[in-house]
Task: structure prediction
Amino acid sequence: MTDPQSLYTTVRTEAATVLVGNEQVLEELTVSLLTGGHILLEGVPGVAKTTIADVFANTLGLDFQRIQMTPDLMPVDITGTKIYRETTGEFETKRGPVFANLVLVDEINRATPKTQSALLEAMQEEQVTIEGETYPLPDPFMVVATMNPIDMEGTFALPEAQRDRFQLKLTVDLPERDLEETLLERFDETPGLRPDQVQQAVSLDDIAEARTVVENVYVDESIRNYILDIVQATRDSADTAHGASPRASIHLLFASKARAAIKGREYVIPDDPKALAESVLAHRLVLSTDAELGSVDPESVVEGAVRAVTPPTYDTVRSSATVSDGGELSNDADDVERTDE
Result:
């Protein structure tokens, strides 16, 4: 059976033939893939948001479709419609680009709220209804949407219900100078380097097997309570009008299990939800008026919530876990030391 750690290592190695850096983004994309989640990618133009999604799909052998969102785009342009064929006298279903394994929704906030809402059923139910008929989407199915944080003219804010459908929000930052130097060298040597030159390194069966491994990762009751305490802290914060939802709690639980599996563990430790809390929770928060006027950002609210909650000790988690090979640590020894400090 394919284990998540091997799958991620394979994806990262193959993606590195085109991408420079972005390991953290690739890791959390893998976390979301293995838990049936969706990703919101934010970054300024030119930091390879679209390329990351395309490369990720190619390394996994996934059917990839890109939807460029614009204000005049209609819901049927995404989901599909029925077309009358005079030659047969019947209506034929024309499926939209949402019928793919990985759908890149480029600049999602440039579409109207009505068009954005066309993705809600697909993201939640993994199905699409076209004129009263329901069609299942491919398995796996994943939406990766991009946003530009600096160009707000002609955009529409994502409604809370839409933001809540995204398991993780990731930020693609400008690269450090040494990484950008490596990038220049690579494109100087291979000017025509493109995402489609990445080879498929993982099969759909590998993904299904890795998902099964993630589902079986052990979560101690103390970890579940730790997740609930962090989420509750976002609700109790004076800086939020609305904190994270129960769906956020579930997404943080699933993502923590996937991170543990990618790190080579069969059980979750406190640093798993701690490391993912900002990515899972920040984009779901609705700040209070005073917080917005005071330039408070959601990330600082989540950071404060994590600091306010005391995590369970590693010994507590380990003593309760039923883990093969005695539950010995391998890759996350540093995480455990930080947790117990």
User: Anything to note?
Assistant: The chain has two domains: 4-203, 216-340. The longest strand covers residues 80-85. Residues 323-341 have pLDDT under 50 and may be disordered.
